[in-house]
């Protein structure tokens, strides 16, 4: 029910597939509550909606593929992005598979607005609109620098994306006019801390060049290789690595026995905003919300050995926009870090690119735009 033009309830479709989708959902929830304090926001895990065992199996399959056979995921992602004969039937099957289950959950809640931060959630919205005639306004918010066809559906009312050429990558007919550039979906705390304050809070050296190395919530990618390549670099360098829930990587890096003044090894943390602020440079796998958090904090990004599929595709977009530098191999990473430590012009250029990317963008304005859907007919096409 809509009260005085303000939604009473909003449903957010996310998924625990790494932290990025949930982090974007949390940022949107924060912005919604700032605008509409009385609005009830409920988050639903799209994958878990198919059952707990299905969720566990899906997460295991994805993580295992990324760790042991990334070439397989790269081939799948490449085919998805290149060939409509491959993507279209997969999208159709996915819409039905998730849509039938999500439909029952939506019906029991009767939200005024549904937001998806996960591609299979968007697929479910498409099916509910086309197969069931659902009239509830729908939004997709893509928290990444590459939008593949699984993200894009012509009957979802509005798509928020991070870069201007996303419509070309989506390869989906009917998106013209309702795909718009949104603000980075990160919480307000990112960018609110100064460097000195962040270092004091996290107990880091004020006089060091601080590198924040992360592989996301699951510790995917070449995080361990990155740390091993950096610990022996000369100079006043301090490395902070966040291993997320990857306990094996955390234990192996902790066992290196490197002085904490040189290497700090952390597991899953809730202080990423402070760590981002404390860092001079962020080293990551090129995928997910971590990059958006770094850009909002105006910290240069090194994409080291980007993840197969979406990681490599997103890195290519970011490099094209001047928002990141990428490198491969231990020697390449060491050379890139040495350059950033000594090249003030490059550091300033990357910082300015992040500042320009975030300038003028406010997640609360995007939420207001979502609220405008409540007064429009179902299936309309947004302009702009």
Characteristic key phrases:
globular, 14 strands, alpha/beta, six-stranded parallel sheet, Rossmann fold, 2 domains, 384 residues
What would your notes on this structure say?
The longest helix is centred in the N-terminal third of the chain and has 24 residues. This protein is an alpha/beta fold and 384 residues long. 46% of the residues lie in helices and 15% in strands. The two termini are 27 Å apart. It is globular, with a radius of gyration of 21 Å. The C terminus is likely disordered. α9 links the parallel β10 and β11. α7 packs across α10. The strands form three sheets. The chain has a six-stranded parallel beta sheet with strand order 4-3-5-6-7-8, sandwiched between helices. It has a six-stranded parallel beta sheet with strand order 11-10-9-12-13-14, with helices on both faces. It folds into two domains: 197 residues, Rossmann fold (3-Layer(aba) Sandwich), CATH 3.40.50.2000; 164 residues, Rossmann fold (3-Layer(aba) Sandwich), CATH 3.40.50.2000.
| N-to-C order of helices and strands | EEEHEHHHEHEEHEHEHEHEHEHEHEHHH
Q: For the record, what CATH class of the largest domain applies?
A: Alpha Beta
List the total number of helices.
15
The helical percent reads 40-55%
Q: How would a textbook summarize the main sheet?
A: 6 strands, parallel
Strand content range: 15-25%
From the N-terminal CA to the C-terminal CA, the straight-line distance is 27 Å
SS elements, strand count: 14
Q: In terms of per-residue confidence, which ranges show pLDDT below 50 for 5 or more consecutive residues?
A: 380-384
